[in-house]
Amino acid sequence: MLFCCACENNPPVPKPPCYLKTDFPAHDYYEVNVKNPVMNYQVQLSKLFNVKRNLSDKAFGFQEIDLGLINGTLLLYSRRFDHMDTLANLINDANDLVDEHKIKADRIDFEQIMDPANRKFGTFFILKGNVATNYQFYLTDSTSHFIRGEVLLNCRPNYDSLRPTLDYLKLDLDAFIQSFRWNNKM
Asked: 2-183: what CATH class?
């Protein structure tokens, strides 16, 4: 019996690569006015997302947005500034936080955000690879407002498995940034 099993003519066949099946609904958005002691802004969020905790104080704005079915969080940090040196420091800090992921990232791409009509400037970072946060960004009006965002998913980073989810999420983040408006009424 043992001898017959060893003489089998069928060589082993490797399993084909597979990915998690993710069924997300069509992209649909609703408008939100976020208010905190630091600044107010208006934005469109995916209907999957829920605005959660606002842990702002008078110096720093901190808003948590639950990503629903995506099982993660968009963290938003906001701050007012009154000096160009402060803006330079805020931008450098945002860039440093992206650079911390260079060890694990296979590649870091970025998209410049330039919308002079709405006083919206910034950078959107796409971190590819098994990193803790695949998307980070910052926006500023260049005179007094600054906001930084990062996406944290509630799972072990495995870029290949997460890629369909990340591609879906990227469209929602693009809509977030495109619709973002400063609201100067405090």
From this structure: alpha beta
3-state SS track over 7-26:
CCCCCCCCCCCCCCCCCCCC
Q: Which of 174, 128, 178, 180 minimizes the C-alpha distance to 27?
A: 174
**Contact in structure between 131 and 62 (CB atoms under 8 Å):** no
The pLDDT tens digits of the residues spanning 40-82 come to 999 999 999 999 978 777 778 899 999 999 999 999 999 999 9
Domain boundaries, the chain: 2-183
CB atoms within 10 A of CB 70: 22
pTM for this one?
Answer: 0.85
CA–CA separation, 58 and 66 (whole Å): 23
